[in-house]
Amino acid sequence: MSAEIVTKDDLELFRIRLISEIKSIVEVRLQPPPERPEGYKTSDVRKMLGCSVNKLVSLRITRKIRTKKIGGTIYYNKDDIKRLLEEGY
């Protein structure tokens, strides 16, 4: 068995690498979350249109309202909601 000798320079190099890796991890986690997409959540749309969840599902299926699903949350297109309100839905 051979033994390796660790010098002060080796320890200093290890410290510098370790600190730089920790900084990069912290910087990634401190980045602001992505902005909320342009759209309304289900509860907001239900209040505006005065309809049930099932009716919203029906409007999505018939493609009268475009949606995006981000992280389990459905966002409804603002222009489509505005158009429905103008049509007197």
Question: What is the topology?
Answer:
Blueprint: H1 8-30, E1 40-41, H2 42-49, H3 53-61, E2 67-70, E3 73-76, H4 78-86
Antiparallel strand pairs: 1-3, 2-3
Order the strands across the largest sheet as they lie in space: 1-3-2
N-C termini distance: 82 Å
**Low-confidence segments:** none
Number of strands: 3
Structural class: mainly alpha
Largest sheet: 3 strands, antiparallel
The helix-strand sequence is HEHHEEH
Report the sheet-strand fraction.
5-15%
Gyration radius over CA: 27 Å
Structure write-up:
This protein has helices at 8-30, 42-49, 53-61, 78-86; strands at residues 40-41, 67-70, 73-76. It is 55% helix and 11% strand. It is mainly α. The chain is built from 4 helices and 3 strands. The radius of gyration is 27 Å and the shape is rod-shaped. The termini are far apart. The protein has a domain at 40-86. Strands 1-3-2 form a 3-stranded antiparallel β-sheet.
Quick take:
With 89 residues, the chain is mainly α.
Key descriptive features of the protein:
three-stranded antiparallel β-sheet, mainly alpha, 55% helix, 89 residues, 11% strand
